[in-house]
């Protein structure tokens, strides 16, 4: 049944024979008595009221002669120390959006300055003051329950009665005057606050106030062990909370070492409903679990951790199976669920998987329904871009889809982009790179006596490395003429190529081609190490061609292999173990016959098996370790792609450096087969290599660490200062993740770090007809291309095409200098390209000033657009809502938060435009009412915090005519 409308209370009045009211009850009774009796006052109107408001004053002032003095005594049963509350109550009317007050306030200030308005606070009197009466000269008094506010005069049901009794009037007057002598005078403070509002703020103050309110975070108590967010993290956290409110989640890209864990833990803490605990599902690599547990547990956030690879696995019928547990939790997700995925780039190929002919992604099948059910999701990574822009769209697909209205039919579509700049400007994406943090610190004035920019972490100063030294070292591939000829003779070709789907950034389309997996794998092994190449040849010689495959082909392969091994034995005069050809062979037949391949490859395999074989690539690594470990007492991390190469380097380095250095490795050999060490064992190796960064008391300490990209994510290895890309990575994300192990903020202001990449000399050959030479060139060109695209997103590079280059992170031509170049900022992106970076930097530079700005600000400035607009920051239910209103079209214009900030951003010296303050208030209120109508919200529930009128330059006269037209229309 529909609710019955609430009955409206009547206003009942009793009148004298002359028609003036003598008593009344009901809503609006106070205003009726003001209309009847304020005009009779000639000298003084004394008012005692629990409340006084500007809206109430506006209602009464037009019934009072200009030379009559107002005396206001405000009191309410609030106890002591509430003087500021009276001022706040008066000033709060400036935030309302229903009534224009500028002219009223101007007239009131004039009254105050001329002594025709006096206001005192009686709330701190020894006895609570709760009187409500009005005395007009010595002629009459009326009293009752009506306060001198709009609510008391017009809205609330009150009772009032009038008296002309001279004795009663004298009694009340004397008592009023005696109380007023001891009450607190508010006049000077109120004049100052009202004049500040009347005189308009500067455009910069409106911009700064908006920045402060949109990015300010309340302090939350933390337990010991939880790190408080630093200033640059606070901007990301505040933005993420607004993204959660508006979009349901966010993708946060923060350079390695900038504290993604703290950012994520703070988001989880602040999204907890009051009085309840959110269900936080944390999906992350096992290597970062300890860090997450420390930050979440010490914030009293309840969470469940799941390893990031579980989403790739099929669920089990076993209820205790972790994949099954994760799947069930996601199925139960609702709007009280928070999903945090750390190192989200693990899922960068899921959209390719979904779009492929297989058309299935277990990751999407599990996460997307949970998000649609209302779960808020936050994706954290340092490297979103790996090989193509589909990587970025893969991550965007995990976020809540946006609403789209084609042909008036609303539907949800995923976020997607076609280039890096578009990606960095998405309202659901936040990017924080190293240059951004440097600029914010410099703008804050965080520069030490040596001119170095530092990052303030509580009481500690931390620094980015002083410089990045990038080296590109050439080496001679082993057996280059012979192996190049073997590749070009098709000795490593499959008989049948495999279908392959990939994404073309230039065409922005999914493409299909055929690839030779054996050829590519063999080429990767050649670029890695002699032992890896030997393994490829062994696999090759254990595989028949398509013509040779028969029902008894395995026996044929074994016979041919045994014969070949005998040849090798005779050549090398040493034993050679025969292995299981079926387990070692390729799954696809080869293009050439086994005999053809054997004639070419067997002699090469024999040479690769010689223990005294010279490997120029290893010699280059040996020199790097000599320089950075023995000569300068540093530490070196070596990244490889092949387990065999890891074991090869371990053996060679231990033999080369004997007892001089301790070598750690995350790969081990099990019954002759190399494999990754178990998680706990690898973690122990990493701690023994970098004990200080782990706050670990190591029984032994490694000088060199050999590892794969399995340990290139989320691990802090800042005890080291050198990273060697021994094997080239496939994607830019791997490259930046490797660098991120040492590119960290530390207490050492003089720290210098080195990044090496080893490049084969074969890529320098020109006009070559060799297929394999061209393929190698393409590989190294491709990684440079991918690196440069990722660099545009993150803002800094980690490889150089030159033999040696250096980026000085302070002074000279450096990343920080480049961040001051707006074009560079547009190229690199970051917190919405240059926008949020610049905004947060400004806020940090002027934070103390922002904290002291007045509560309510109005201003105007010129801008380059042709149509006049007004920006208004509203507050609704404790949330700040920026809006933009077009005066020409009389319509609201939807913008994302960064676009609003970009629009109102200005320098400190930006002048006010020549627009009357009263007109700014009028159109700000008009914009606020338009927003309330659109959102179906009562205007009484909304406060107007800031208003900035944007005036097209050189069109002030036209604008004033437009404002006159608007005013006339409203009349």
Which structural class should the secondary elements be placed in? alpha/beta
Count of folded domains: 5
Number of helices: 35
What fraction of the residues are assigned to beta strands by DSSP? 15-25%
Mean pLDDT score, rounded? 84
Distance between the termini: 41 Å
Q: Largest sheet, described in full?
A: 9 strands, mixed
Alpha-carbon Rg, integer: 37 Å
The rough form would be described as elongated
User: CATH-wise, what's the superfamily of the largest domain?
Assistant: P-loop containing nucleotide triphosphate hydrolases
Low-confidence stretches: 79-83, 560-583, 811-834
Quaternary = single chain
Keywords: ATP-binding, Hydrolase, Nucleotide-binding
Protein name: Helicase C-terminal domain-containing protein
Organism: Nostoc piscinale CENA21
GO molecular function: ATP binding; DNA binding; hydrolase activity
Your description of this structure?
There is one protein chain. It is elongated and about 130 Å long. The protein has a 9-stranded mixed sheet with strand order 1-2-8-7-6-3-4-5-9. Strands 24-27-23-28-29-20-30 form a 7-stranded mixed sheet, with helices on both faces. A 6-stranded parallel sheet has the order 12-11-13-14-10-17, sandwiched between helices. It starts with 11 loop residues before the first strand and ends with a helix. About 5% of the residues have low confidence. 41% of the residues lie in helices and 19% in strands. Helix 17 runs parallel beside helix 31, helix 20 runs antiparallel to helix 23 and helix 21 packs parallel to helix 23. It folds into 5 domains: 187 residues, 2-Layer Sandwich (Endonuclease, Chain A); 165 residues, Rossmann fold (3-Layer(aba) Sandwich), CATH 3.40.50; 205 residues, P-loop containing nucleotide triphosphate hydrolases (Rossmann fold), CATH 3.40.50; 127 residues, no CATH class; 116 residues, no CATH class. The longest helix has 24 residues. By secondary structure, it is of the alpha/beta class. It comes from Nostoc piscinale CENA21. This is Helicase C-terminal domain-containing protein. Keywords: ATP-binding, Hydrolase, Nucleotide-binding. One of its GO terms (molecular function) is DNA binding.
């Amino acid at each position: 049944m529909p609710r019955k409308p609430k009955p409206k209370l009547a206003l009942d009045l009793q009148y004298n024979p002359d028609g003036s009211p003598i008593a009344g009850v009901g809503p609006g009774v106070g205003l009726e008595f003001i209309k009847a009796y304020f005009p009779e006052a000639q000298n003084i109107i004394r008012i005692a009221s629990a409340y006084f408001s500007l809206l109430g004053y506006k209602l009464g002032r037009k019934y009072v002669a200009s030379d009559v003095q107002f005396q206001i005594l405000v009191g309410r049963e609030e106890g002591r120390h509430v003087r500021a509350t009276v001022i706040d109550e008066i000033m709060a009317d400036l935030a309302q959006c229903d009534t224009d007050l500028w002219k009223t306030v101007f007239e009131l200030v004039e009254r105050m300055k001329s002594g025709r308005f006096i206001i005192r606070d009686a709330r701190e009197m020894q006895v609570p003051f709760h009187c409500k009466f009005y005395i007009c000269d010595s002629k009459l008094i009326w009293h009752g329950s009506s306060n001198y506010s709009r609510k008391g005069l017009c809205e609330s049901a009150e009772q009032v009665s009038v008296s002309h009794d001279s004795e009663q009037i004298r009694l009340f007057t004397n008592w009023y005057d005696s109380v007023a002598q001891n009450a607190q005078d508010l006049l000077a403070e109120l004049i100052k606050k009202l004049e500040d509002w009347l005189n308009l703020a500067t455009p910069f103050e409106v911009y700064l106030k908006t920045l402060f309110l949109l990015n300010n975070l309340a302090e939350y108590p933390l337990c010991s062990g939880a790190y408080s967010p630093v200033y640059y993290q606070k901007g990301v956290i505040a933005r993420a909370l607004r993204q959660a409110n508006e979009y349901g989640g966010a993708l946060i890209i923060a350079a390695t070492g900038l504290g993604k864990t703290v950012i994520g833990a703070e988001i989880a803490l602040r999204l907890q409903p009051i009085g309840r605990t959110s269900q936080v599902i944390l999906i992350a690599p096992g290597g970062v679990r300890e860090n997450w547990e420390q930050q979440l547990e010490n914030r009293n956030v309840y969470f469940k951790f799941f390893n990031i690879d579980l989403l790739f696995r099929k669920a089990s019928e076993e209820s205790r199976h972790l994949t099954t547990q994760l799947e069930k939790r996601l199925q139960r997700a609702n709007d009280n669920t928070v999903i945090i995925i750390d190192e989200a780039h693990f899922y960068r190929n899921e959209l390719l998987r979904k779009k492929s002919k297989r058309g299935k992604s277990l990751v999407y099948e599990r996460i997307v329904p949970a998000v649609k059910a209302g779960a808020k999701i936050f994706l954290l990574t340092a490297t979103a871009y790996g090989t193509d822009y589909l990587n970025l769209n893969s991550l965007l697909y995990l976020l809540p889809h946006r609403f789209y209205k084609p042909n008036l039919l609303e539907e949800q579509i995923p976020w997607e982009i076609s280039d890096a700049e578009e990606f960095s400007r998405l309202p659901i994406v936040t990017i924080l790179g190293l240059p951004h943090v440097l600029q914010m610190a410099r703008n804050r004035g965080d520069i030490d006596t040596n001119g170095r920019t530092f990052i303030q972490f509580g009481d500690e100063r931390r620094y980015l490395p002083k410089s990045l030294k990038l080296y590109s070292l050439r080496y001679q591939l082993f057996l280059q003429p012979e192996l190049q000829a073997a590749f070009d003779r098709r000795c490593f070709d499959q008989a049948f190529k495999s279908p392959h789907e990939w994404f073309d950034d230039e065409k922005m389309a999914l493409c299909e081609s055929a690839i030779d997996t054996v050829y590519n794998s063999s080429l990767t092994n050649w670029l890695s190490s002699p032992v890896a190449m030997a393994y490829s040849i062994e696999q090759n010689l254990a595989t028949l061609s398509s013509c040779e495959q028969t029902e008894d082909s395995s026996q044929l392969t074994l016979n041919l292999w045994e014969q070949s091994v005998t040849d090798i034995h005779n050549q090398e005069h040493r034993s050679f173990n025969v292995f299981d050809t079926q387990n070692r062979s390729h799954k696809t037949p080869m293009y050439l016959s086994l005999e053809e391949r054997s004639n070419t490859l067997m002699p090469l395999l024999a040479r690769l098996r010689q223990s005294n074989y010279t490997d120029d690539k290893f010699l280059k690594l040996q020199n790097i370790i000599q320089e950075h470990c023995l000569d300068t007492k540093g530490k070196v991390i070596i990244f490889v792609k092949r387990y065999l190469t890891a074991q090869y380097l371990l053996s060679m380095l231990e033999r080369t450096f004997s007892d001089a250095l301790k070598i750690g490795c995350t790969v081990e050999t099990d019954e002759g087969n190399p494999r990754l060490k178990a998680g706990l064992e690898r973690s122990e190796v990493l701690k023994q290599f970098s004990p200080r960064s782990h706050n670990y008391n190591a029984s032994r300490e490694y000088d060199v660490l050999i590892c794969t990209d399995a340990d290139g994510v989320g691990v802090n290895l800042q005890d080291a200062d050198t990273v060697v890309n021994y094997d080239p990575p496939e994607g830019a994300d791997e490259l930046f993740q490797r660098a991120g192990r040492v590119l960290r903020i530390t207490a050492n202001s003089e720290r210098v770090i080195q990044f090496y990449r080893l490049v084969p000399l074969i890529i320098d050959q020109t006009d070559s007809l060799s297929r394999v030479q061209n393929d190698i060139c393409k590989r190294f060109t491709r990684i440079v291309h991918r690196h440069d695209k990722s660099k545009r997103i993150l803002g800094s590079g980690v490889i150089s095409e030159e033999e040696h280059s250096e980026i000085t992170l302070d002074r000279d031509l450096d990343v920080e200098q480049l961040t001051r170049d707006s074009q560079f900022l547009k190229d690199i992106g970051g917190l919405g390209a240059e926008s949020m970076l610049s905004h947060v930097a400004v806020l940090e530079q002027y934070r103390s000033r922002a904290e002291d700005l007045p509560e309510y600000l109005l201003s105007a400035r010129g801008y380059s657009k042709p149509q006049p607009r007004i920006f208004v920051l509203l507050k609704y239910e404790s949330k700040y809502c920026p809006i933009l209103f077009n005066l020409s079209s009389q319509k609201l214009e939807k913008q994302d938060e960064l676009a609003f900030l970009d629009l109102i951003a200005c320098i400190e010296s930006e002048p006010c435009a020549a627009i009357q303050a009263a007109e700014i208030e009028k159109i700000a209120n008009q914009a606020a009412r338009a927003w309330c109508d659109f959102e179906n919200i009562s205007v009484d529930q909304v406060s107007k915090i800031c208003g900035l009128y944007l005036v097209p330059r050189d069109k002030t006269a036209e604008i004033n005519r437009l404002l006159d037209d608007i005013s006339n229309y409203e009349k």
